[in-house]
Design a protein that fits this description.
By secondary structure, the protein is of the alpha+beta class. It is built from five helices and ten strands; from the N terminus they run H-E-H-H-E-E-E-H-E-H-E-E-E-E-E.
Length: 235
Amino acid sequence: MVPDVDELFSKVTIADTHENLVRNIISLRKSEDLFDDLSDDPSEQEVAVRLEIDTKPPHYTSEVPIINRPFEEAAFFEAIGFPFTNWTESRFSNGKFGIWYGADSIETTVYETVFHWRRFLADADFETEGSIVERKIWKVRCDAALLDFRSLVREFQLLTDKTNYHFTQTVGDRLHHEGHPGLVSRSARCEGDIYGVLNRDVLSNQQNYCYLTYQIIEERVTIERDPGITFLTIE
């Protein structure tokens, strides 16, 4: 029996959130030159870089735009802005609006992203020994009154169903329609908390925290924070 969304909302509380959340995204540890395949001439590559910077619309106002804009704009878009302009279907979105996901800890983000990475590899028939991906950890400030579903996950178990997102997408659709800034709930992969933010204006002060490397070894995923040193292993 599918639980009633109205009943869920009648029992929800508010989490007055003012803290740094953790976001885990795909990113190279060492940056690559995106324009080196267009020309071997460094001066021509610089022209391409300049064109990209000059034609990108700003996502914020900098106090020193001539100095900060290229760097702050890129960091903002990577850490905060991307999911609000690139909508995809997820636990709390049907793909018709953007939602930003963060978590309470690096470990929670690892369990969440490992699940989706392995599912992506399996769907592509590419989950093999030695498969590897590099990721970046951002810490992002969140200041918002979020709807708090954490105390309701036992009563409404579909909130943390590992594969069925129909109920949670209905919840997210109502949040989006009514203009709520976001939510906090329990992770479906571990004991941590996950955050879904619908209003990017409540997110700020992105800080690049560290890098991670995931690798499949003997059907497990080994995670390294420092190269050669195991940070976490997930069966």
